[in-house]
Queue: 4 jobs
Job 1
Amino acid sequence: MKNNLSTYENLSREDILKILKSRDRELYKFKTLFDHLAEGVYMTDCNTKTLYVNTAYEKLSDNSREHFIGKTIYQVLDEKLIDESGTLLAIKNRKSISIQQKLANNKIALITSTPIINDKDELEYVVTIVRDITEIMNLREKIIEREREIQKLKSQKERAMNFMYKSHETEIILEQSKKVAKYDSTILITGETGTGKGAMAEYIHKNSNRSDKKFIQLNCASIPASLIESELFGYEKGAFTGARDSGKIGIFEQAHGGTLFLDEIGELPLSMQSKLLTVLQDKKIRKIGSDSEIDIDVRIITATNRDLNSMIEAGKFREDLYYRINVVPIHIPPLRDRREDITALTKEFLREINEKYNIDVDIDSEAFHTMYYYDWPGNVRELKNLIERLFVFAKNNTITKEDLPQSMLINISNKHRSKDIIPLNEAISKLESELIVKAFEKKGNVRDAAKLLEIHPSTFVRKRQKYIEDGFIK
């Protein structure tokens, strides 16, 4: 018999299924064969009554076969020996079904249940092949946990650098910024108002070899044209009427050895643009009222929300200065083009304000997903200010969709409205249901889809079922 068994040990699952299609006497003839298989075998009749389990399944389940044989799958489920049945699914669908199953001893198995149908198209048996994947799943969980730890450390590091993000777009920008930070190349940061150009400039400084030196910021739009030169270069005592008796040190001198960030460079008057160009080329400054020049060692970062090319064509910005400051361009997309950052930013702003006032205010999923679809014309600055306002007026320490500004809901509704006017709540439901469908299509299962949306799996299932019932999901 031993020699005969050795000929069957390498049979494929398909060959085993063919054997099972034979008469009952053939089935029992090969019981010994099944006991030599490394994978578990669990077989029931067409009424789900357990007929046979092999030795491998006994070891996997930590139960003898007598504990199963004679019981229906319903009884096995009631006794919580398994958490889900592939047998029932195979009978219902009359085709092979593969699912993940958890046993009573907390082991995890990948099972494939196949209905055995005779020549009369009658279901006779269901055979389930069971493979222990506990170690694989544990390893997967360890990898996921490790990734979480890495992301946590990454977030803590980036938080220290004044930059929170989650989107791939922002990650690419930060990688580029870290690379250019090592060099003293002049940088031009562009982007809409409120996108975080100042934070990016500081991020570059903190990643540079000048990080232990000063970071000086000047908003060119906030200084009157008559005072910009004295702010930039300083002046000697008595240089002009009203000048300080001690004179003044300009920000170029203040930033010596460090980084000077000139925000809203497009607002700089033409007369000062030529002087700035000279300083960038010669790396020397001359104070107002002085006959001598001062050597300066400053890394220059500029930023603007204006279209400098259009300003050049209109004669409002010097072309030669543009090329001098635009050695390394960095563009920060608006928040609506990197919506995944809304997650990280919202959590960070809420964390900061909770920590400041020692209060634990949270935001529910409906409010968050509504904010996700808003266009954020004011970008990160608008988001931060809104979180502070919502924090102040939050009821029961929870920010809900009802707390969001009406203007935000109108913006979302107008963006996605049909030809007919629909209620705002209906518009939000439509958007949320679309997000749920996209997440499930992308991940293929509830747990990963819920994780992508950062909600609990039970919340995902509840919302999905609700939108199916309401007709938003077909």
Note: The chain has three domains: 2-132, 163-333, 337-469.
Job 2
Amino acid sequence: MYKIMIVEDDKALCTNMNEMLIKWGFDAVAVDNFENITAEFAAKEPHLIIMDVNLPYFDGFYFCNKIREISKVPIVFVSSRDTNMDIIMAMNTGGDDYITKPFSMDILIAKINALLRRAYSYGEQPSDLIECDGVILNLMENTLLYKEDKMELTKNEFKVMLLLMKNRGKTISREKIMRALWDDDNFINDNTLTVNINRLRTKLCDIGLKDYIVTKKGYGYMLL
């Protein structure tokens, strides 16, 4: 079952689209938090997005551009704005189609089905993202995204974040982290781990994530 994420602040229209998508056998999810749609996308992991242009905080073009930094998921714009410049903006920011309001639900469904066939004709694509409270780890690029900031991670920093984010709420022992970091070219001892954790914490603090990694004294680390 394909999951469709609806980014539409008109509640009546959002409800209508939600009902129609469910009727056609889709798993429909609507965005409630319009302040950080990129994080909502990473958390919900949809196969396709229906995106309005006029939204609270930032417009749909802005969020389409941000999502394109981390994913190639199909995006269909729906908007009452119908100028050539709006359509050009939608395509230039990474949109796959543009429908002007008012529109036929049957047309929307047809366009959704066409984009899904095109995007997933060779099977489901595994998620390349992990999200925890608005923090997004990109598994393909070894990068971390939080609000407006995107930072590159070293191999060890990426492995630490991946382990902690996959086990959010659980304390991971220092020994388990050292085993995860240790490979044929990289011997990790207790001191090296401490250096890696401290450098990672400094990077996280620089983008507003102070105390994101919690120390469990005498054992290890965790994300709350």
Note: The chain has a mean pLDDT of 90.
Job 3
Amino acid sequence: MLVLKKNKENCTLPKAQLLKWVGNKQKIATQIIKYFPRKFNTFYEPFLGSGAIMATLCPKKGIGSDIYPPLMAIWDMLKQDPQCLIDWYEERIDRINDQDKVTVYNDIRDSFNKNNNGADFIFLLRACYGGVIRFRKADGFMSTPCGVHTPISAETFRKRVYEWSERMANVEFRQCDYKTIFDQAHEGDLIYCDPPYPISQNILYGAHDFKLTELFDCIDQAKNRGVFVALSIDGSKKANRYLENLEFPDDLFQRDISLSLGNSMLKRFQMEGLKIRSEKAIKDRLLLTYRL
């Protein structure tokens, strides 16, 4: 007999984001989680990104993964040595006290582009323009300029690290492709997917090679094994026109829920600080393979 564990009582948002990440779901994390099954076993998040859903859920057993090494280096350090993660950030942010911010940023970005690493990446995530990390398709060069804002202080970052470390205490982090995670999930487990959007995130890492149809195949197979799957996907009109041309497996999703994300970081980046009209607000869809 399959015994499922209660997993989502008293979910609360972290006080603030640890990582800036385009498309992150921190604003609506509690809304998303309310549509999760009340009981499930292991919680998987194979497109971990900012970790907003994982940190809000604080699962009894979680597996957080992503394919991008510098990102997972940050999450691994949060788990293994939070103080080292703080030191990474403090070492770089302190350089702004002695040098021009843009000069420091460009030097760290050059270092990152020569040797992709989590230590540089954590600073760039907090300091880049619009919070949007983007990469040139031709050579993978991280090209986002320095932001106009002042990055958070080392002390503020330290407080966030220790809060998030506690929230992620029961999470194992893995650098791997999402297909590996789907293969490992068993009956009664829950997978939450927030993949790169096929339309709006084509400038982001991994989005060039990601195919939504392949993810649908994985979801179909997992559903047939008794795995619960929840999928966040771009709900904008442009994306909906794209999705109309895709073939969803018959009866793959049992529910289709619309959620509002407000204005996206990516849209602000593309508009270069211009005022964004209300109709540009991003709608997100939450698709479920199950009914509550």
Note: The CA atoms of residues 185 and 227 lie 7 Å apart.
Job 4
Amino acid sequence: MSGVVAPVAPGGLGQRPQPAEVLAYLGDLDAWVAGRRAELDAIDAAALTSARRAEVDGDLVLSMALWKSAADRRDQLRTAWDGGRVDDSDLDRIAVLIWGRLEAAGAKGAGGAAVAVSIPEACRLSDALASQLRARLDLAPATERATARIRDLRAQLERLRDQVALEPPETRPAAQRTLEELVARVDAVAAKHDRGGDVDGLLGPVENDAARTERDLIVGGVRRREAREHRARLERLRAELQAREATIAALADEAVATVTPAPRNAVPDVSLLGPVPADAAGLTAYDERLDRVGRAMDVAEQRYAAALAERSALLDQLAAIEVKAGALGVSTDPDCAAARAQARAVLDRRPAPLEVAGHLVAAYRAWVDLVAENAPAAPGGRRP
């Protein structure tokens, strides 16, 4: 039994593919999905009668999960392709579907944490796992099996070369050394196989190490991509908070100058957080600190705005009472006029004592009500 090979995806994230490339990729992906499903069915049937069933259960479940995720995304791509009736926006969406992350249930990194992979990554992981499962279940005659396994290993080494080239400078030397060791081991096994030697016992450990290395490299790439996206999001959030800092500081200055007592909430200085770190642990801690700063800004903004709103509400009340006094014909009454003038004068102060102003506005309202109630009735029995 020989395995299908993950098709090469067109373009990259943010790169619009050409319609011809999408059509070719969908055809290759259809063949991969069908071939891998048939292969997994055969592997599952062989595992049911194998003494190694318990050993391969986990990888078999993971392989099925990866296949299902890839098949679902293939269906989404088919829907977006719509028989070739696509414009530029459709091609952009297809690029996102190809290179964006899909949920591969059960896919685990070296630390046991679940990861989200793109469909090309899911296909390559599935290739690696299927190759390993075939080897562990002995699903081919000895010579043919060994030849196929060596061929699969060499294809896997080529994929590893591509993955190593994507490693950052700080981890690439170690990954390159691991790749060179695997190449040397595969060359040694292939040479022994060409001489007619039995290599079954040698292939298993090499396949396991190659599969583990490929998985770790893919997961590492996903983790770095997630870290880059996380860092970019934090950079944007930090910039937004710095812009808010200036706005809230101006609001605080206005509130302190306009009313008393004014809130005394400190406006956080975003610059004290320092630059956004690059490592995953540092990003998590920095995210939490930005969240605390954002919540502190929310509280400060609400309280300073509320203080200014309280003065505005008192001015609105004063204006409404003035209209009422005019309607009742008591606006020129000395007591009413004096109460209004005093309330207006206090509200116009900088800063205006809000508690005193509130009492004076209430006093003005009381004077208007009292004078209107005690005013002599107009001719006809009505009060002015």
Note: Confidence is low (pLDDT under 50) at residues 109-113, 378-384.
